[in-house]
TrEMBL record:
It holds the Pfam family GyrI-like. It comes from [Empedobacter] haloabium. InterPro entries: GyrI-like, Reg_factor_effector_dom_sf. Transmembrane segments: none annotated. It comes from the Bacteria. This is GyrI-like small molecule binding domain-containing protein.
Amino acid sequence: MRSASKARTVVPGGQYAVHRLRGPVEQMAGAWLALTRDWLAGGLQLDARPFIEYCPPDVAYDPASGVFEAQPCMPVTRL
């Protein structure tokens, strides 16, 4: 089993749209799509900062089902 790599960085400040995902990794693409569809339709636009997939330090993961928790974060700004 390959161990996950970790990185620590400073993220530029600003507003992020966040989706809370609890499910298998196969649902991550749908989470990104939901962010794009739901948030950008609400008077926001993409900002030129990094996209982030945040997993809290106490993230839950079930190896039997593959279900985990993550928070895809998309940088946004007002139109």
